[in-house]
Amino acid sequence: MVGGKWWCFDNRSSGGDVADLNPVLLVSGVGGTILNSKPKSWFGVTTRVWVRILLADLEFRKRVWSLYNPDTGYTEVLDDSSDIVVPQDDYGLYAIDILDPSYWIKCLHVTDVYHFHDMIDMLIKCGYKKGSTLFGYGYDFRQSNRIDQSMDGLKEKLETAYKASGGKKVNLISHSMGGLLVSCFISLHSDVFSKYVNKWITIATPFQGAPGCINDSLLTGLQFVEGLESYFFVSRWSMHQLLVECPSIYEMLPNPEFQWRKQPEIFVWRNRSENGQDSAKLETYDPSGCVGLFEEALKDNEIEYNKKTIPLPFNSSIYKWAATTRKMLNSVQLPEGIDFYNIYGTSLDTPFDVCYGSETDPINDPSEICHTSPEYSYVDGDATVPAESAMADGFPAIERVGIPGAHRGLLRDETVFEYIRKWLGLQLQSNTTRVGVKISKVVDFGLG
């Protein structure tokens, strides 16, 4: 989507008295960080591989496609001449600001790739200053949410923000999967979290998973950009080949232990032959039973890379790793003295159940699913994460607020900004509540 502003350069300024402000650290979610491909040798050019619009699919296949290493727990790029790195410019804010910061993207104000940009602007206008009270944390979102690299990086950012502000505790604002990363950090480093964190505001976090989107992403891929722009971006199929090797994706599968109002399911119309007669049968898979379907559907999945054929079936090693992560997420407890706030998206059709094939056009072989357009059943949410999942944080929240809006759009929503300013103590609470906004100050959802 292209906005109506025709400006090219970032004229932000950081000013005002910041002496009384606790520092803010912004934590991105899946796909919300610039990733660069850096040559291992002294020679060569560092290339932005996520996000880019021009030559996106070509560079993605060449430099980002990866394989999971069960010995290390890390997903490693197939390109053995380079590494994936996160740029650290601008106190970590550059990597999570405009995900394609190229000249013409800024000139056209292509908001599809504007991530934390508007929120950063809002905080600066409120008096926050980069490097003393405002910081960003981007990370390699291909990896597990509990991998040492991500945990150590978050610890370092918290320490940096704490020291730069003169020993003031940090207010965390996380988006989407970033909330799961923070939850893992609490589980593994509760003492560090207590030492450095004052408040935690999370936005659109899939605490119990994102059933429709994640189930389908493992079977057919994921399209981050829709419409005309998608022809200039990474294709759904190319993204699919990365996601089947990403622990972070497996960690957002629907939680089978959560007491859903209705269990999320995958439906497949299969062509079955009985007594010489073909007929369509509807098969159903719940969160615990979907592994068998993933294994069947992805058994022949493969890519061609450097003239070699590389099998990419459903990765059982990643699934086992993710199951341990889920146990950690199910048992994490917020340390005492931390104020927790939860914003979740509402009012949009959000994929929940997924169906492949139809009664009149059934699936003959499970591998066909990977090349099939899905049909969804929908629930209320932000078009990516069901409100039911995003609400179910399991923490003693000060407030939970449901705001009508899309998953990424919530990062640019003025109502979201109003609540952030209120919770950070930047303004008094308004006497009026916007239409459609749902507020609760106590745990209001049965957690599994």
TrEMBL record:
GO biological process: lipid metabolic process
Pfam family of the protein (one): LCAT
A GO molecular function held by the record: O-acyltransferase activity
Coiled-coil regions, chain positions: none
The name this protein goes by in its record: Phospholipase A(1)
Organism of provenance: Lactuca saligna
